[in-house]
């Protein structure tokens, strides 16, 4: 049983590695995009810092979060946003276009996991700028808070970051999978992106209860951004950690089920 | 050895239907009316390893739907198919890694990256060992003259260059079954010929089974001894290309060379029974219904100073045209023969 499974994982890993290496090899093609990404990233960063300055000009904490705690959150928000922009969003956009134009057929006739192929088919390196900004801001925020992080904190952070990314990925995949029924669906991703950009950069704990529920389970931003930030700011408890793992598993399983459900009904763009 | 077995394959699409106008549009949001459209109906055939079969039919006949079912892209509504021992739509990796689908109107190479990078991706996906990848790539590069193209991004290639690269990319894993859907569409005549001879060569060298759809009869004539014709989703004919012409040609052309062209027009028209007639420098040619061929030929031989007389089948294009023009459910729809 373990043999074929390992074999599959090895195959999948090789495919992912090839896509990544192609993204790197073709970096030069993205030179101007990189410049744009830096400018865009810096503008977003300054706007967010200004917003924080306005808030903390009035108060010394927001729902229990200090200025530096929120800096960490802004950093995590950048980091996750960068990961989404690096591979998830461009791949999903390409997939939806492929469904519309019929080139998605070629993804399905390849002897590999169709969900994997669809999900990693475009790697857009300029998004690494956001990842780098995110890491920088997280380090800045953690440094500003004072007090050392234990290895356990960092491990919990990485674990919850992974779970958050998986949850967001599954959510976006499920949204994009609806393109099998509704041909023009690009707007759905735009709505998600703006929700992520606006609501995602605040701790969900400051929102009223109904909105918090919505942002946790319907559009799972809470576990993606707030929970990893909690790991770095000494707020994370065991229940939330387990919740993050469980939520990621449930979202992933559901998205994968939905994916294969949709494939069985795939009719393709006509000849 | 049979490579492809298709048994009463049937595919019905459910398509949304609404009338024009705002009211109907709003109505359809609330209650979607759908209609069943039959794309492929009870189609059965078998194809052996090493065969190249032309799959013909007018637009919308069900060719692409059939190919897509055989490539594993679509689940049929009913019926069975086995390709290389697998049921295609179960999409087993062992099947997909021995099959290739090439569509002339769609490209699978990544637009923004060099051709060679897309090939590397195929190498990873199809698990082609390095040594095999290199030797096959060298071979395909030579046969299709790809040397200058491999390092260019796909978007910088012409249509013909892109098609050559598409084909090479689809053959790196040495598929045993090839589904070619209009592989030469939009290409110039020289490039069409190149692709054609390459496909013939690939089939000869590897013994791969090829199913080809094309609107260019030259492709079919050059590559396929056997053709399968479907129309309105039904199998209309399965057999040799020459048999197809024989069976469906409604007319024959009689060309006669004359010693001297004395006969006047009225006389000739009477001789050929009023059928369309063309005069040439050396004689005449006339298109007559198949059943009257012998009678008209005999009359011409008896009454004119004939030097030579030739009876010909019409060109395949015009035969195919006649077949495709046939309305649905006419008697010839049941004329199905084993191939």
TrEMBL record, chain A:
Question: What highest taxon heads this organism's lineage?
Answer: Bacteria
InterPro entries the UniProt entry points to:
ABC-2_transporter-like
Q: Where are the transmembrane segments?
A: 34-57, 69-88, 123-142, 154-182, 202-226, 238-259
The answer to whether the entry has keyword Transmembrane helix is yes
Spell out the Pfam families in the cross-references: ABC2_membrane_6 (PF06182)
This protein's UniProt keywords: Membrane, Transmembrane, Transmembrane helix
User: Does the keyword Zinc feature in the UniProt annotation?
Assistant: no
Q: What is this protein called?
A: ABC transporter permease
From TrEMBL, chain B:
Taken from the UniProt entry, a GO cellular component term is: plasma membrane
The record's section on SMART domains has: AAA
User: Where this protein primarily resides, as one coarse class?
Assistant: membrane
Mind telling me which PROSITE patterns this protein's record contains?
Answer: ABC_TRANSPORTER_2
Q: How does it sit in the membrane?
A: Peripheral membrane protein
Which Gene Ontology terms cover its molecular function?
Answer: ATP binding; ATP hydrolysis activity
**Superkingdom per UniProt:** Bacteria
Q: Where in the cell is it found?
A: Cell membrane
Report domain ABC transporter positions: 24-257
Which Pfam families does the record cross-reference, listed alphabetically?
ABC_tran
- Sorted UniProt keywords: Antibiotic resistance, ATP-binding, Nucleotide-binding, Transport
Signal peptide positions (record): none
Extract one GO BP annotation from the record: response to antibiotic
Q: What is this protein called?
A: ATP-binding cassette domain-containing protein
Q: Which species does the entry assign this protein to?
A: Auraticoccus cholistanensis
């Amino acid at each position: 049983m373990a043999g074929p499974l390992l074999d599959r994982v090895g195959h999948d890993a090789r495919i992912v590695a090839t896509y990544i290496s192609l993204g790197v090899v073709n970096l030069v093609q993205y030179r101007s995009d990189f410049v744009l990404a830096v400018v865009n990233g810096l503008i977003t960063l300054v706007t967010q810092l200004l917003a924080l300055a306005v808030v903390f000009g009035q108060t010394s904490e927001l729902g229990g979060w200090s200025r530096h705690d929120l800096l960490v959150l802004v950093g995590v928000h950048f980091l996750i946003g960068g990961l989404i922009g690096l591979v998830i969003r461009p791949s999903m956009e390409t997939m939806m276009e492929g469904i519309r134009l019929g080139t998605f057929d070629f993804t399905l006739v390849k002897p590999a996991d169709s969900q994997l192929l669809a999900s990693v088919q475009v790697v857009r390196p300029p998004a690494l700028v956001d990842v780098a900004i995110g890491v920088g801001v997280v380090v800045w925020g953690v440094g500003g808070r004072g007090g050392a992080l234990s290895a356990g904190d960092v491990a919990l952070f990485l674990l919850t970051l992974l779970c958050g990314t998986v949850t967001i990925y599954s959510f976006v995949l499920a949204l994009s999978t609806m393109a099998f029924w509704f041909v023009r669906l690009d707007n759905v991703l735009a709505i998600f992106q703006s929700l992520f950009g606006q609501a995602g950069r605040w701790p969900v704990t400051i929102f009223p209860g109904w909105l918090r529920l919505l942002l946790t389970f319907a559009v799972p931003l809470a576990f993606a951004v707030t929970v990893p930030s909690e790991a770095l700011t000494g707020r994370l408890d065991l229940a939330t950690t387990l919740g993050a793992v469980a939520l990621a598993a449930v979202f992933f399983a559901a998205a994968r089920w939905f994916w294969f459900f949709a494939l069985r009904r795939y009719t393709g763009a006509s000849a | 050895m049979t490579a492809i077995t298709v048994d009463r394959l049937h595919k019905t699409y459910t398509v949304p239907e609404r009338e024009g106008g705002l009211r109907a549009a709003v109505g359809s949001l609330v209650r979607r009316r759908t209609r069943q459209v039959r794309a492929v109906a009870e189609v059965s055939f078998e194809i052996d390893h090493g065969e190249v079969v032309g799959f013909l039919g007018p637009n919308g006949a069900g060719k692409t739907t059939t190919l897509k079912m055989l490539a594993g892209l679509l689940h049929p509504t009913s019926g069975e198919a086995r390709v290389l021992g697998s049921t295609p739509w179960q999409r087993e990796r062992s099947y997909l890694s021995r099959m290739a689908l090439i569509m002339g109107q769609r490209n699978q190479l990544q637009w923004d990256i060099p051709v060679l990078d897309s090939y590397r991706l195929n190498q990873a996906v199809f698990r082609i060992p390095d040594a095999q990848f290199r030797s096959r790539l060298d071979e395909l590069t030579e046969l299709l003259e790809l040397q200058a193209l491999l390092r260019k991004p796909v978007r910088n290639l012409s249509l013909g260059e892109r098609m050559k690269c598409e084909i090479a990319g689809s053959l790196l894993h040495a598929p045993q079954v090839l589904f070619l859907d209009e592989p030469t569409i939009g290409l110039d005549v020289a490039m069409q010929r190149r692709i054609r001879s390459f496909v013939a060569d690939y089939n000869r060298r590897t013994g791969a089974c090829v199913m080809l759809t094309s609107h260019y009869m030259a492709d079919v004539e050059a590559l396929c001894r056997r053709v399968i014709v479907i129309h309105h989703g039904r199998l209309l004919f399965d057999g040799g290309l020459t048999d197809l012409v024989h069976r469906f040609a409604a007319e024959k052309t009689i060309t006669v060379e004359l010693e001297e062209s004395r006969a006047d027009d009225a006389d000739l028209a009477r001789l050929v029974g009023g059928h369309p007639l063309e005069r040439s420098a050396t004689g005449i040619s006339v298109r007559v219904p198949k059943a009257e061929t012998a009678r008209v030929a005999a009359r011409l031989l008896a009454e004119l100073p004939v030097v030579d007389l030739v009876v010909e089948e019409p060109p395949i294009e015009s035969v195919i045209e006649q077949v495709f023009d046939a309305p649905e459910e006419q008697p010839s729809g049941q004329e199905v023969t084993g191939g």
